[in-house]
Amino acid sequence: MDDITLDSIGPLRLYQRKGGYRFSVDAVLLAHFPVFSRKTRHVADLCAGSGVVGLLIAKRFPWTELVLVELQESLAELARRNIVLNGLEERVSLSRADIRELGKGTSPVISPGSLDAVTVNPPFRPLNTGRISPTGERAIARHEIALRLDDLMGAVKRILKNGGRLYIIYHPSRLSELTESMRREGIEPKRMRFVHPREGESSTMVLVEGMKGGGVELAVEPPLYVYRNDGSYTSEVEEMLGGPLQGANPV
Fold it and tell me: What's the Cα-to-Cα distance from 8 to each of 23, 72, 99, rounded to whole Å?
């Protein structure tokens, strides 16, 4: 097990592979974007990786039951271990599944129209763009090799209840594609927040909340800045981290 590291985000501990796909600060930002009422009980985190987003949400909202959905066996095994490591077996389960098949009646874990909310940090680079990582974990997590945007939105539509919510982090350069794909599937963008490395710098990420069957009304929240000018995290991000951040890749 020399290729495995034990890392942490506040109270959360995580096994990750040294040379595989490792979570970034964007996972922390996504996990803190949802605002769940007590009526939000059944949640899925898609493209779960080693489980960081779903496990953070489980810690934030102790009344929720979560399913972590991950295609790659190497990452799914880490997610299984991380569920146990953090003592969340009673509320969090793992489904190794192809997201494109969710909601078609073939998944034993997620049935059509069963979820109150879905979170996802999907691959956002189209094929043949950017530098594809030499490791399969990273390549599939970052590039649309196994999951295209329209396939993702089709699955989200099938598994969400009417009125259910989608929470996604994406690249601003593809924001128009994202909102168009959401609306084609009847998921109306309701809330949006742009993420910037520092004040005065261009946005590198955008957080979007959508509602299945929602009306046309969008709230754009104040920008979120990750770093101060001296390179330290802003107070808002420090509060999200809840303590030293170990093992993450930078934004």
Answer: 11, 22, 27
Mean pLDDT of all residues in 118-144: 60
Contact, 209 vs 166, CB < 8 A?
yes
Computed from CA positions of residues 29, 34, 36, 41, in that sequence, does the dihedral angle turn out positive or negative?
negative
**Residues 120, 191: Cα–Cα separation, whole Å:** 15
Whole-number Å distance between alpha carbons of 135 and 9: 24
Residues 6+ apart with CB under 8 A from 128: none
CB 164 within 8 A of CB 212: yes
What is the C-alpha separation between 22 and 19, in angstroms, rounded? Answer: 8
Q: What is the 3-state secondary structure (H, E, C) of 9-34?
A: ECCEEEEEECCCCCCEHHHHHHHCCC
| Predicted pLDDT of residue 10 | 80
For each of the domains in the chain, give its residue range(s) and CATH number, in order of start.
4-166+173-181+233-246 (3.40.50.150)
Q: Are 196 and 203 in contact (CB under 8 A)?
A: yes
Dump pLDDT digits (tens) for 153-166: 999 999 999 999 99
Q: Which of 171, 192, 14 is nearest to 88 (CA)?
A: 14
Q: 3-class DSSP state for residue 174? A: helix
| Lookup: tokens for 216 | 């046309």
State the average pLDDT for the chain.
Answer: 88
